[in-house]
Design brief:
Layout: H1 5-13, H2 17-51, H3 61-70
């Protein structure tokens, strides 16, 4: 069963206020969980780059500007 986004929106319009509130809370929870997974994946990728020696660190402002201009 595949619904379009428009179908889902129309279905949501038919919900009671309490059901819409519950759906709202669920969506917030799902978005938070999704963002946490994205942060974890980014962290793991960064740790992998660190392990492979691909990351460089410096406190030299000119060096940082140069690195940023290359990216």
């Amino acid at each position: 069963m595949s619904q379009t986004f428009a179908d889902v929106v129309e279905d949501v319009k038919q919900l009671t206020s309490d059901e819409m509130q519950a759906l709202h809370e669920l969506l917030k929870k799902y978005l938070i969980e999704q963002r946490r997974r994205e942060i974890l994946e980014s962290c793991e990728a960064s740790l992998q780059e660190l392990a492979e020696g691909k990351l460089t660190f410096t406190s030299d402002i000119e060096e940082l500007k140069e690195q940023l201009s290359r990216d």
